[in-house]
User: What shape does this take?
Amino acid sequence: MAIRNIVKLGDDILRKVCRSQLEFDERLGQILDDMAETMYKAEGVGLAAPQVGILRRYCVVDVGDGLIELVNPVIESEKGKQTGEEGCLSIPDRFETVTRPMTVTVRAQDRSGKSFKLKAEGFKARALCHEIDHLDGILYIDRVERG
Ligand code: NI
Assistant: This one.
């Protein structure tokens, strides 16, 4: 495992739409391991592949109840609304208020390619939405409501 460099705001990589991950091989597993290690070291709750310079659709999330690896994640449904503070490892020392769904159902694949469904609410739903946005080049600061 290795710590990867986290791409920061201003780098074009963060604005690209990522491509689907089609190979479920050892390399994918290694990158996911590195991403988790990098996220924990930076004390974040999520990290998406473009944040380590890889334009592929996968991310890791851990809001304190265990690591989740999501490959090719898709939000299948969302319900309700929550408004709260959000930050991003690519945008250090900045937090802003963003409205997100209260509950989401996400379908994704694991590192071996097996499909799974995940329902999350509250902060975990927020983290999932934030990371999945990264895969489309969207940053939370794009969603801040300007009063
Ligand atoms: Ni982020």
